Amino acid sequence: MGSSSTGHNGVGVPPAGLRAWKKARTRTTISDVATGLFMRDSFEQVTVAQIAAAAEVSVKTVFNYFPSKEDLFFDRADDVIGALADAIVERPAGETIVGALHRLLADRRVPFDASGWRALRDPEAYEGFRRYLETEERSPALRTRRLVISELWTARLAQLIAHQLGLPAGDPRATTLATMVIAAMTLRARTLAAAMMARLSARTVEKRVRAVVDEAFERLAVAFADVDLPREADAAARSAP
């Protein structure tokens, strides 16, 4: 592509917007290249220098975008917690936080993908996703990193839940609910990975994940019914864009 500041739709892009777009594109390219190498050669075998060379950037550039090698693999971690937050904040009147998360995690293969489970019906997409999960399953470093990410998700979720329910910051009820939601997500992830490793049909994979999510969140709904009250209509209206 040339240096013109005209976007793909023919509309002029301000220099600041173009810079942001180029940075986002570079970040995505580096991550995609890294993930492809990890899936081909294993996470432990691939070096950052190899990733930089394949992406045609410097090692310094890689670390400018990703603080660690593990972050290259988990580049959508912020999108996951962002999707959870959106489900909570945008839940309609009459719905609880647990109910909103239940629906999100049952209806979607990954929280940030609004297309749901449709991708698994495509054999090529199925295999690509299976190989991605297999890469993590075979890497002690990636499995350890997921634990760290889960801790970060728990802290952010606890803060949001407390705010949404009008509880004091650090309230143990919000912290406990957040911790149990992330634990349920961990079980969900393990169920999904096991089904994909066994190469079960797309329909069976979805069915098994939904069963685990239903069991966990139906029990959470009962356990936190005294705290996680259905959203009132005026609160939902205030959060509407």
Give me the secondary-structure topology.
Layout: H1 15-41, H2 48-55, H3 59-65, H4 69-73, H5 77-89, H6 97-107, H7 123-137, H8 140-165, H9 172-197, H10 202-223, H11 233-239
Helix pairs in contact: 1-2, 5-8, 6-10, 8-9, 9-10
Distance between the termini: 36 Å
Spell out the helices and strands N to C: HHHHHHHHHHH
- At CATH level 2, the architecture of the largest domain is Orthogonal Bundle
What fraction of residues sit in β-strands?
Answer: under 5%
Radius of gyration: 20 Å
Number of domain modules: 2
Global geometry: globular
Q: So what's the oligomer here?
A: single chain
Q: In which range does the helix fraction lie?
A: 55-70%
* Main β sheet profile: none
Low-pLDDT runs of 5+ residues are 1-12
Number of helices: 11
CATH level 1 name of the largest domain: Mainly Alpha
- The strand count comes to 0
